[in-house]
Write a structure and sequence with these properties.
The protein is built from 6 helices and 4 strands, in the order βαββαβαααα. The chain has 183 residues and is of the alpha+beta class. The chain has 2 domains: 94 residues, Transposase IS200-like (Alpha-Beta Plaits); 62 residues, no CATH class. It comes from Flavobacterium cutihirudinis.
Length: 183
Amino acid sequence: MKLEVLKKDYYYHIYNRGINGTNIFENDANKLYFLKQLAKYLENKISIFGYCLMNNHFHLVIRLNTEEKEVTQAFSNLFNSYAKAFNKQTNRTGSLFEKHFKRINLKDENYLRRLIVYVHLNPRHHFDIDFTDFKFSSYQAFLSNRETKVERAEVLTLFGDLENFIFCHNQKNEFLNETYTFE
């Protein structure tokens, strides 16, 4: 698979999973550490429009704020630092993630909206978990007034308002158009 070239000011679906489908998160502390490292390495380099951390994979919906080379290096630093810490904690060696993180350029606003919903619904798709209560997705950040790293105002504007944001998430799969490939 040829990797999409990242471009400044473009939106992307970034995702990866554990090598051979193995877990990349064993517990909540791992997920919190991943988010901390994400902020450390990529703050101001990307804007986050959505995320979800599942046990064996993750999804990020982002926009690049700087040039590709800088962002790619920052992601590399994130994944390397996380893998080293995870391997040390779990007493394992070797690669943790599949070779390259996947990236899909989001061509239009409809795709962006549908992807944000898809990412937030991931817990329901994989484990039949109520996505509204899932701790490691950005969904709750949009409902809250607390400070957040996600682009709350921009995303809610993209959906029209908070009411429509919630409505679109509760439409089951009707909102997700089959013509889009998310993974």
